[in-house]
Amino acid sequence: MTETIQPAYDGYRFGRFEVRIRNGVLLRDEKRIKIEELPFQLLLVLLESPGEVVSKETLRSRLWSDRIFGELDNGLHVAAAKLREALGEKAGATARHIETIRGRGYRFNGSVEPIFSPAFGMGTDTAFGDAAVASGQAVPDDAGRDDPPNHLEQAAKTESFLHRRSIRIAAFALSVLIVSAAGLVWFYPHRHRPLADSSDPVVLGGFINNSGDDSYNGMGHAFRVKLEESPYLNLIPEQSFLGTVPEPASAPLKQLLKGCASLGGKVLITGAIMARSTGYEVTTAARSCTDGSLLTTEKAKAESRETVLAALDQATNRMRRSLGESGASLQRFNMPLAQATTSSLAALRAFTLGEEKRDSGQEFEAIPDYKLAVDLDPQFAMAYARLGAIYSNAAEQTQSADYFKKAFDLREHTTDRERLYIAAHYYLISGQIQRAIEAYELWRSLYPRDASPYQNLALEYLDLGEPEKAADVARTAVQLDGASSMSQAALARMYLETGEQGQLQTLCSHVQGGKGDSAMLHESCFLLAFLRNDEAAMQEQILWSRGNAAESELLDDVAWVAMYQGKLNAGRKLFAHARQTALAQGFSELAATIDVDEALLEVDCGYRREARMLALDALRLAPQSLSIQAGAALALGRSGDTALAESEAAKAAAQAPLDTILNDAQLPSIRAAVQLAKHNPQAAIQALERARPYDACSALNLAPAYYRGLAYQDAGHPDKAAAEFRSVIGYLGLMPDSPYIPLAAIQLARVLHRMGDAPNAAKAERQAKQAWQHADPDFLPLRKGTS
Question: pTM of the predicted model, to two decimals?
């Protein structure tokens, strides 16, 4: 982003027009003309170089960021058209001042006079003369002389007097100029010195509704949106401040300042709205966190309810400028609140109630509030996005995708930060992984102090099985917002998958077990306890989930551990409990996902009939779900129902042609399963090559590499089969509860036994049987052994 160079003058004059930069005003014959902000900024850039062509590239760097959503040409065309309209011109040959240079840019035609505004008003010559008299300077007085006047002498005296007077006037004028200049030297930097620089920590201390009207209770969220929109402000994360001051809007100023100082904040910003005899007044104030002194106050009036959000726009924009944000940044990152949030105060209030519940860990309880917000304003993009995120966290991917699609379609009605949030999540839920990563990268480049893109990047790299890429961004997320449960969850999972068990143990020991904790954090702590064979710690995490909205997810993890251990009957009961819990919570797609999980494990342990029944039940619960169609198709293919498997796979493929994991990993795995059932291992091997880059992807649970090993085994390539099974075992750190690890170990033992490598075959068998030491006696893989 390019900084606008501040001019040394305060405006321009051309023809009948005058531009006042500081006030953002365009005058014609001393009467104000209505003009929007972007056309006004375009005019300023053109006036800096009258008669010269200003290129599109220059205008882009001055008016927009280098990375902008939308088409540059169209944006310039609209801005130029509105500028001409304000100047009373038409495009083309008749345009007097604003000329379009086709394919190159724009040019201002006409003479331009800069306007300078000195700090002090300077008087006329008369004023200087009066000053001289007042100062007691001698004035010749010839009255009472007896001699007749000598005209030559009098002329000489007069000339001498005028010369001395001129010198005195010049000297006085020079002294005034020196004083004025000194005043400017002192006044300008002191008047315009920013209250904070971009590195100073700033705390948002809440927004008070003193209007007597509850419909303005949602203004606090709008206040935060406007300030979070700024890439300049170094805002301390909201969750960190809520940890010290749980209810900022009702807290006394002393408590706000204390909380701000405890977090190392430099500036505390608060806001308020109050009713006036006519309309309302919105106020924002900045105070020093160290001594509580008032640094500045910015106010804006609203004539009616309809202009309250516009008044908040004005007050926050002035505050951002007072805090040091440049005009270019304010121009670039300045979406009006009525567009960025909603023009409906009722919808804003409902959304705010949802945000408060979400921030306190009551994510699922916030769903009715967000739904009410979109009912009140069907154009409320961020309300749709919040619903999409909640349903995604509940594994309700179909509903999540629907809500994110609505948000994505409305993303132009949001701030840049919110637009990036929506775009990245939409790409992710629609399976466009690379585009999601690019959106997160752009997000963190524009807002480098925002923890959210780092959190999401870390989790995406972990889902792809690339913990080394996740390490740095996960640590940065915690540095930026250590109080966030998402930051902690990303860090915990990174520790688990990189084998940093000591670090993870330290993190887990500090987990408070509160309602606002991330289920992912507790899952990582549960898996660490499982790796360490710490039954008490495992139970502690299970107890946390009871009665929690995340209970079914953690129960699913416990069921996977039981299947890893060969405890088939316990695993089935746990899967059934998890499924019933999800249904009781109203999450049918999550229940279907649990069905698919169990079906895949049942079939690969040899229980084909049970697997087929579970797959059919999953399709009954969520027949339109992309993930369920793909998962059920894989289980059906492995169970021998190849026709239905191919049918469901075709439905999934038709739904998501851009989904990376589906097209490059899941569908190849389904084709391989069908070919294995048809005793065509070579075709299975060919199908699975496409999935190789995603062998460690969490969505596949190590199945592709395992199936590739089976295919090589059936095709008579024991050495290649052994390599595939070893690769599965090598992912123990990434997925320590995956039943495919002991299954791969027993398959490796069989392959090595047939190859005549008895010592290594025995070692692999011991590894499998160690995992199954408490298995059910009739557990099929254990009964088959290496035979």
Answer: 0.72
